[in-house]
Design brief:
Elements lengths: L5 H9 L3 E5 L10 E3 L1 E4 L2 E4 L8 H9 L1 E6 L2 E8 L4 H15 L4 H9 L5 E5 L1
Antiparallel strand pairs: 1-2, 1-5, 3-4, 4-7, 5-6, 6-7
Protein name: DUF2255 domain-containing protein
Length: 123
């Protein structure tokens, strides 16, 4: 399995948003949408603000593949659903820390969307 370089990891982790373009069933990329991204150690995670109703999330979950762009990094990725409760606790904290300046109206839905946590793995 491929891992993020330290440069890629820090550039994406420091960026406010990530452009997410999941792969559709017929093999084309969805139009990119801006989402929040947080690091946990040497991994990167995303969640759907709209929970399981998020269109990009449903597409990503079905295909497990897509493309991201953030902090000058442009990369094909695999989406993995493997965040246990301990990892999700750390991701909750990471969202509150990184995005707390936007207030609870935005951060609280991200923390509540634990079931939509996806790990981004570079391809």
């Amino acid at each position: 399995m491929t891992t993020w370089t330290s440069d890629e990891l820090s550039r994406i982790a420091e960026a406010d948003e990530l452009e997410m373009a999941p792969l559709r069933p017929e093999g084309t990329l969805r139009r990119p949408v801006p989402i929040w991204v947080v690091p946990d150690g040497t991994d990167l995670y995303v969640r759907s603000y709209r929970g399981t109703d998020g269109t990009w999330w449903r597409t990503a979950r079905a295909s497990h593949e897509g493309h991201i762009r953030s902090g000058g990094v442009d990369k094909d990725v695999t989406f993995m659903e493997e965040a246990d409760s301990e990892v999700n606790d750390r991701i909750d904290t990471a969202y509150r820390t990184k995005y707390g300046r936007f207030g609870g109206a935005y951060v609280d839905p991200m923390v509540a969307a634990r079931s939509t946590t996806l790990k981004l793995v570079p391809r």
